[in-house]
Design a protein that fits this description.
209 residues, two-stranded parallel ribbon, 4 strands, 5 helices, 6% strand, mainly alpha, two-stranded antiparallel ribbon, Fumarate Reductase Cytochrome B subunit, binds protoporphyrin IX containing FE
Amino acid sequence: MVLMPIARYPRVAVVLHWTVALLVIALLVSGSYMVGIPRNTPERAFFFNLHKSLGILTALFIVALIIWRLRQEGPPLPGGMPRWERMAAVLNHRLFYVFMVLMTAAGYLTSSFSKFGPKLFGVPLPHWGWEDTALRGEFAAIHRVAALAFAALIALHIAAALKHLVWDKDGVFERMMPGTLEDTQRYFGKFVEQKQRLVPGLRRPPRHD
Ligand code: HEM
């Protein structure tokens, strides 16, 4: 059988993708948990401070991811992919960027209009506002609704990735996996019979505009 070549993501993109993915999942879990903790308790203060710190750390990785993405196009999708699926993938990825920016901005603004303020591992950061319960509530509501929509988008993204692994067997899942291709095949290979082969070097040239 002749295997069609499919381009991998470069290592820097794989590292940024998985770092942001793990941090965002930690933020969704910690955020959902902490809002249920009784007010004025040390546990609530601990989780709020942890969540804010992780959120600000995530923002730095998101900026790095956006800079990488603006300078470098992702590797092309496999030739045989239907048009609707290509459009859905592009839309899903663009919405990810929208939600990553919206979530961090709304979170930072929620903190900025509260008396506690944004903090990075205990170090107070600039307030973008003043103490205002009504505005804090507005930004918290935006943060909450966006978190629900973001979680739905992430679920769709994971389902699509698994469809590529189990059903399409076209290498799209494998090209964003950390480690070598042999590592990926070691963990997932028994479930898949590749119709395509991953090519490390094949990717679009960087943008210079
Ligand atoms: C991708 C980044 C982020 C995600 C996915 C995320 C996720 C969440 C979630 C799921 C909640 C619970 C919402 C609810 O059920 O009410 C929450 C609450 C909260 N987040 Fe984030 N967050 C992010 C970034 C940030 C940042 C950067 C800050 C501040 C520096 C922040 C501050 C807060 C605060 C203060 C709350 C509590 C809101 C309230 O009192 O209702 N978040 N976050």
